[in-house]
Design brief:
Layout lengths: L4 H36 L3 H20 L5 H19 L1
Length: 88
């Protein structure tokens, strides 16, 4: 347990960030699942719409530091490949 005033403050800040990161990760995972569900159903328009909503969410999470930049890029790339495979 933190005993210094600055360490107690840092502990409070870390807890706030952890809660925020958990929330953002959860919402991004939900969006990814919606894209994958549309791809499973082979629904071209629904998967494209879901992807269009998911990409900015992943990018924003990366810019806030929730995901590493390359992790976000990898997730976007893999989802895009799956959606584009339906078109062709």
């Amino acid at each position: 347990m933190a005993t210094h005033k600055s360490a107690e403050k840092r502990s409070r800040q870390n807890e706030k960030k952890r809660m925020r990161n958990t929330s953002v990760k959860s919402s991004v995972k939900t969006r990814i699942k919606s894209v994958l569900a549309a791809v499973e159903e082979k629904d071209n328009s629904a998967s494209a719409t879901a992807l269009a909503a998911t990409i900015p969410a992943i990018s924003k999470a990366a810019s806030k530091g929730v995901f590493h930049k390359k992790t976000a890029s990898r997730k976007i790339s893999r989802l895009t490949k799956k959606v584009n495979a339906l078109k062709g």
